[in-house]
Structures are given as structure tokens and as C-alpha cells.
Amino acid sequence: MKVMSAMHSGHMKHLNNNVLWAVFGIGLVIIWLFLWEWSVRFGLSRQFFVPPSELIALLYQSLFVSGELRPHIWATVTRFIGGFVMGAVPALWLGFIMGRNKRACLRYGPIFTVLGLIPVLSALPWFIIWFGVRDFGKWAIVSAAVFYPILYCTTNGVRISQRFWDKGSSPGIWLKPSDWAYTAGPWIFTGLKLGSIVGVATLFGAEMYASTSGLEFEVVVAGATFQMARVYTAMFAAAFLVYAIWLCLTAMEFALARRHTGNPSASADETPAHNPPV
């Protein structure tokens, strides 16, 4: 009973700490908005380049109501999803192969490392020549951008999990080889999150130079006509898009972690020979 009470109190303390840090992060955003509004109202920044926050909120609402921003958001979202799937599926597949097979890692790892470290946007003219300026070209460049981060994290996660599995012992009395932290899952979702950020940034660069729609195209057009409120509106929409993608991946990771931890096969009397961690 004392052990269970101590575990429960420790879990509640950890949960309270997480809530406090989340509130702290939200408070920083609110303080930043207040500083923005205060700097504009008191003339510390020019309203032409830094409009008040309420103006941006009103314009954001008007664009959604009128539907002017929806096609650009839809174009960016569909391009990202298509390219992300095209790049993530082979990266995960090869990551599992290279993580389990040392020879495959030594054979193909240097090639993918050299190709993955090349900035994808520098090859944008070649993607335009090969795939054109339509959406498929955006899918291709996004898939190339997300491929290496996902491959690298998946390979390392599977390799580390395999080593822990081969060891056949857990580092603590309360830990089992089937615990989520000792599988490849956290590494895989780290790669997915990093790949999503790199993919969105690459997509914005492609929309800037080779597109007639999308959020970054809206930023460029509005900036060329000095409509700064529209520029900030599109930038905020892009930021919310990235945050939404991050939240979706975090929710998937949390659901899989709970399901994996709550699996009846992950009980205390399990044997390593029947429940591999990867």
C-alpha cells in the first residue's frame, strides 16, 4: 500500500508539474501579444509594418468568412499531406530494415546521409524540371525533405530498441522491455515531428517561387503590395497549421503509448522471447 501510495503521489506531482509548465507556455504567448499591442499603441513600432493585433484578428476572421484564405490553406495542407505520406512510408520501411540489419545500415547509410544533408530547396529547379510546377512537384519536394529525418530517427530507434531487446534485461525493477520508452516508438515520432517541420518549411519555400496558391504565396503577394495585415494573417495561419500537425502527431504518440503500456501481454510475468519491443 505504501508503494502504491508513493507511486500515485509521484504521478500526481508529475502531472501537476506538466500542467504548470503548459500554463507557463501559454502565459508567454499572452505576454508576447500584450507587448506587441503595447509597442504599437505607444508608438514604439510603426503601424505600417507592425499592425495592431486586433486588426490582424479582424482581418483573419473576415478572410475566413469571405472564404478568401480557404483555398490557400487547403492547397498547403493537401500538398503537405501528399508529400509527407510519400516520404514517410519508404523512410519508415527502410528505417526498420537498416535498424535491424547492420549490413544494410553500413551499405546504404552513407548514401542516404549524403543525400539527406543536401538542402532540398537548393534542388528546387531540378524538381521543377522533373515534376513541373503543379501539386505533384510540391509533393515530390516535400517527400524528399521529410525522408532523411524520419529515416535517421527510425533507424536509431530500432537499433537501440534491438540492443535493449538482445540484452534481455531492464535497467530498473519497475521497467520492462515492453515499456514504451524502450521501444522504437518515441524515436519514430521524433522523426515524424522533425520531418513535418522540415517538410512544411520546404513547402513554403516551393510555394514562394513556384506556385500560384498556398499560404506562402499569399504572404509574397500581400508583401509585394504592402498589405502587412494580410502578411501577418497568412503567417499566423501557417504557424497554426504547423502547430496543428504537431498536436496530431503528439496525440497519436500518446494514444499508442497508452495502448502499448496497457497491453495485457506487457505484464510482469512476460518473457522477452515472445514480446519484442520494436
Quickly describe the structure.
This protein folds into 2 domains: 1-45; 51-274, MetI-like (MetI-like fold, Orthogonal Bundle).
Walk me through this protein's architecture:
The protein is built from nine helices and no strands. The chain is globular, with a radius of gyration of 23 Å. The two termini are 34 Å apart. The longest helix has 40 residues, at 2-41. It has two domains: 1-45; 51-274, MetI-like (MetI-like fold). Helix 3 packs antiparallel against helix 4 (102-116) and helix 3 runs parallel beside helix 6 (135-167). The protein has 278 residues and is mostly helical.
CATH superfamily of the largest domain: MetI-like
CATH topology of the largest domain, what is it called?
MetI-like fold
Q: C-alpha Rg, in Å?
A: 23 Å
- Give the strand content: under 5%
Give the C-level CATH assignment of the largest domain. Answer: Mainly Alpha
Mean pLDDT: 77
Work out the number of β strands. 0
Number of domains: 2
Q: Helical segment tally?
A: 9
- List SSEs in N-to-C order: HHHHHHHHH
The helix/strand class is: mainly alpha
Low-confidence parts: 264-275
Helix content: over 70%
Shape: globular
> In the CATH classification, which architecture of the largest domain applies?
Orthogonal Bundle
> Termini distance?
34 Å
Largest sheet: none
Q: Which oligomeric form is depicted? A: single chain
